[in-house]
UniProtKB/TrEMBL annotation:
<dbReference type="GO" id="GO:0050661">
    <property type="term" value="F:NADP binding"/>
</dbReference>
<dbReference type="InterPro" id="IPR013752">
    <property type="entry name" value="KPA_reductase"/>
</dbReference>
<dbReference type="InterPro" id="IPR008927">
    <property type="entry name" value="6-PGluconate_DH-like_C_sf"/>
</dbReference>
<comment type="function">
    <text>Catalyzes the NAD(P)H-dependent reduction of ketopantoate into pantoic acid.</text>
</comment>
<dbReference type="Pfam" id="PF08546">
    <property type="entry name" value="ApbA_C"/>
</dbReference>
<dbReference type="GO" id="GO:0015937">
    <property type="term" value="P:coenzyme A biosynthetic process"/>
</dbReference>
<comment type="pathway">
    <text>Cofactor biosynthesis; coenzyme A biosynthesis.</text>
</comment>
<keyword id="KW-0521">NADP</keyword>
<dbReference type="InterPro" id="IPR036291">
    <property type="entry name" value="NAD(P)-bd_dom_sf"/>
</dbReference>
<dbReference type="Pfam" id="PF02558">
    <property type="entry name" value="ApbA"/>
</dbReference>
<dbReference type="InterPro" id="IPR013328">
    <property type="entry name" value="6PGD_dom2"/>
</dbReference>
<dbReference type="InterPro" id="IPR050838">
    <property type="entry name" value="Ketopantoate_reductase"/>
</dbReference>
<feature type="domain" description="Ketopantoate reductase C-terminal">
    <location>
        <begin position="173"/>
        <end position="291"/>
    </location>
</feature>
<keyword id="KW-0173">Coenzyme A biosynthesis</keyword>
<dbReference type="GO" id="GO:0005737">
    <property type="term" value="C:cytoplasm"/>
</dbReference>
<comment type="similarity">
    <text>Belongs to the ketopantoate reductase family.</text>
</comment>
<keyword id="KW-0560">Oxidoreductase</keyword>
């Protein structure tokens, strides 16, 4: 299978690198990472060890492949969609944080767009080297829910490369559940500069749980069946499974990059406002992270 990964940061490089054990993979990323991968290959270290030789480029216009996997930051989805539209793919799979990326991609593309989540822990340690800090799984399916033969076929190809992959018939709910987890873990770990597991401990556990609970409430207002109990259980299980990991938002803050706050807690605040709901914890976390970004000239 020919696969192009748009957004070869930490997670994109890890997923692309794992798939390159079986498939022809091209990573689209930034130099010097892309250049190093092209010249000397990609080294996966930590919990998934491999040295692979995917192709790598900084320019992905006019590409043809069986599958494009999108792992860019949520704020860059529209730009990625524009580039993808110059090429040709049998299908596009979003493995991004946030809800609604698939719709942005689908509105610019003619091919089917699938939704997905990836729970691997990854850190881009140096150009050409990614540390796998947690073996997780890929969950994918039709973006509007329901069975999908295409999702089944892609899952089988991922499994052939050794990636634990599940097909979910209710991806809208799965994405909101992931949003609840991200809303609890990402800003709290970024602001307090702690590993994911710390959100299970007092006093920040209240903040993380509050953000996840509010997200579930907004999901229900958007006709997605996610109970508070399910959102809290997902938060607790991801936080304990990834206890020693650095969340993507904390990685962004440590690298002084703009975060995905708008697509995570900011998204919850916006959807809540449209429905006349109060989400004070998400509002507070959004304000704090946006204030940090403004102070660094990142927004
Ligand atoms: O998706 C994540 C992220 O860091 O963005 C979690 C689930 C919090 C795992 O680190």
């Amino acid at each position: 299978m020919e696969i192009v990964v748009f957004g070869a940061g930490s997670l994109g490089s890890l997923v692309g690198g794992l798939l390159a054990r079986e498939h022809a993979v091209t990573l689209v990323g930034r130099d010097p990472h892309a250049e190093t991968v092209r010249e000397t290959g990609l080294e996966l270290v930590g919990e998934c060890e491999a040295t692979v030789e995917p192709d790598a480029t900084t320019d992905a216009r006019n590409v043809q492949a069986d599958l494009a996997i999108v792992t860019v930051k949520a704020a860059d989805t529209a730009a990625a969609a524009e580039t993808l539209a110059t090429g040709s793919y049998d299908a596009v799979l979003s493995l991004q944080n946030g809800v609604g990326n698939e719709e942005t991609l689908a509105s610019a593309l003619e091919c089917p767009v699938l939704a997905g989540t990836a729970s691997y822990g990854a850190v881009l340690e140096a150009p050409g080297r990614v540390r796998c800090t947690g073996v997780g799984e890929i969950v994918l399916g039709a973006r509007t829910g329901g069975p999908s033969d295409r999702a089944d076929r892609i899952a089988a190809q991922f499994a052939a490369a050794g990636l634990e992959t599940t097909v979910d018939d209710d991806m809208p709910r799965r994405l909101w559940e992931k949003l609840a987890v991200n809303a609890g873990i990402n800003p709290v770990t970024a602001l307090a500069d702690v590993d994911n597991g710390a959100v299970l401990e007092s006093p920040v556990d209240d903040l993380a749980r509050g953000a996840a609970r509010e997200t579930a409430r907004v999901a229900r207002a958007c006709d997605v069946g996610l109970s508070n109990r399910e959102a809290l259980a997902a938060l607790a299980s991801v936080a304990s499974e990834t206890a020693a990991n650095t969340s993507s938002m904390r990685q962004d803050v440590l690298a002084e990059r703009r975060t995905e706050i708008d697509a995570i807690n900011g998204y919850v605040v916006d959807r809540a406002a449209e429905r006349g709901l109060e989400v004070p914890t998400n509002r507070l976390l959004t304000s704090l992270v946006r204030t940090w970004e403004r102070g660094r000239g990142l927004r």
